[in-house]
Fold each of these.
Amino acid sequence: MTTYLTDRIAINPDICNSRPIIRGMRITVQTVLEFLLTGTPTDELLYQYPMLEPEDIDACRSFTIALMDRKYIIKDIKLVA
């Protein structure tokens, strides 16, 4: 079952190990961001993945920014042997 986190970003336990994906396809948000962070131009990324739309790339960026806007707490976990 696909659960949409935004209008373009979804999670499905049967696709890509439940990583956030784009519109139910087997393209992860992480894949798109890795290409962008290594300097791949948006036009090249759209050429390499013709099923992507410019709005998908914008959605990946916005999704990442939204994740960074959350509050995170690090907890120590003690393992019992």
Note: The mean pLDDT is 94.
Amino acid sequence: MHLPIVLRVSTEPPLVSFSVMKTSTTYPRIREAGKFAVNVLSHHQDTVSSQFARKGSDKWAGIHWSETQAGNPVIEETLMWLDCDIWAEHDAGDHLIILGKVNEMSPPGWHIHEPLLYFKGKYRYLRAEE
């Protein structure tokens, strides 16, 4: 199990989406709060990604983070983050599709680091051509 992929859905209003298994033990807490943050990890944060993907562990152990204005956690050294409220939730078989309205975002750090990618069971690195 790895972290969900977040996709832009709409520009006006600004909406993003992700899907989560109905058996998730984390999502019910997000639903109850009604808000979440999306952290776009840097290429060197593969251990952070792996830690959050493990079941039954303290996902936040040893993770350095701060809060958005709305109180959502932002992991240090991410490329960027989005602070969202849950906009809608849709049934999709054994998953739920969650739409989030973006209320705040950091400036992107694409010029500083490359994004962390997970593809075909491995972490990959996207390198810009010189």
Note: Strands lie at 7-10, 15-21, 35-40, 65-67, 73-75, 80-92, 95-105, 116-119, 122-125.
Amino acid sequence: MPEQDHGAPTPYAPPAPGTVTAYRGATLFDGTDRRPRPSMAIVVDGERIRHVVPDADLPALLPDGAETVDLAGRFVTPGLIDSHQHLATPPDRPRAEAVLRRLVYGGVTAIRDMADDVRQIGDLARATLVGEIPGPDIHYAALMAGPGFFDDPRTHQVTRGATPGQVPWMQAVTDTTDLPLAVAMARGTHAAAIKVYADLEAGLVAAITAEAHRQGIAVWAHAAVFPATPRQVVEAGVDAVSHVTLLAHETADRPLTTYRDKPPVDHARLTAGDDPRIAELFALMLRNGTVLDATAALWASGEMAGDGPEAAERARLTSDLAAALTAQAHRAGVPISTGTDYETAPEDPFPALYEELAFLVDRCGLSAEAALRSATAVGARSAGAADLRGTVEPGRLADFAVFDEDPLQSIANLRTVHLTVKRGRRHARADFEAGR
């Protein structure tokens, strides 16, 4: 019998079960409600965490031949999670691979890709999972929207060679759509969720959500779907909503119509942070367990600055709105995840996720600890992966980041990232800086 061909090399693959490594001596923030603990050891077997114990308890737990990595004086957090990425609109494989590499060497071990050309995203997800290329794990969505949305040029970019709205990862839905079939087609792309985007009535959002949950797949939605309002989207039972500024449309003075016909927003009233309709919406989100993928820093980024004073003023006003609403959500106890919806320039050595975390701390009133929990435990919940990742605990994936300086003391200390462990595979920051 001829020797089996194992395919492309997998230099970034997780270690095999039985390969035991102990990381010892660090101060650990594990992503749970525990306070940071000094002098802790994390024992990894293959791609899973076997033990998390004080250093003094480590010798009795190590098998012969186990490797030990000294992290004395350093700080460990769970692997970071960016809950809003777009890697393939339009598809650009070299660019996507460069972004993925920068993310994982920056401590990011998982992302949510929020609808792209799934033909490429699926392959990127496979490549990072098996270790052909360095990168975080990718939890991605297939999109559903009303037919009116599919003249958007982005839908043509992600369905080249096919018809927008008529492919399994990008479907136009009406009240005559066979929803069990549509959801099954979306699941067939190996998507982690269905993203509900635009131009859908409240009843159809609820029907999509119910059918998706019946088939065991999550639903991620824009916070306003037009004409479905934010409250109607949350009442539909979606698992997460994106873009905090869209929540402002809960206070619209007229009914919502279409995605392209957004009513004006009263920035002055909403930035006071005490609008009762928004407060009621946040109370509903808290009761339902709806995660808010705030993308709070988006309008403060260069991505949205635009050209000229008018665009700059619009970005400033919207950024202020994002800060105020995110702060109000946090005070209400709404779980907030850290999505970006943009990336920093290719020459920037650090990912946009660091900017989102800084915005949450500097503009939205989150403590560094709360922001890091948003980027870890809440991020895992947003991706439907809270049983696998988001905390450093026995049985979870061996996903964690190591920093030279304590990010709980200053969120800027994320830029001292020293090492990322993703599914037990080490990615040393020095290798990234050396271009290896």
Note: The chain has two domains: 20-76+395-433, 79-382.
Amino acid sequence: MNTTSIADVAEQIVQDTVSAMVQPNAGECLACYVLRQLNTFGCDGSHRFSRAFRDLTAPRATSLEVRLASMGACCCDCEIYMNAYESAQRDWESRPQPPCCGVRLGSTQPCGNWVRIRRYY
């Protein structure tokens, strides 16, 4: 006799869907992944997507948050696009996000879609 309730089945479907949505695509870079997640879920004032990317694809990158903070993204994921990286194509913001150019497994560097924002003080 099957004792699985409809609520249990529904909960498993939701968990599987969310898990698939937050999984980085094969070869996807940090910047493309975080932007995709922010566009879907929004910013909560933390580095939750940066940490998730690191944990799932580059667990040895233990100083990722320190590196992001040194580029001006000290508090949250959305600061990556205000202070650390910008689109390599200036008119890109008026169009949908282009597909990620890809990076090697274990990298936390951005792909060719992104350039570092240089700050001069």
Note: The beta strands are 85-87, 114-116.
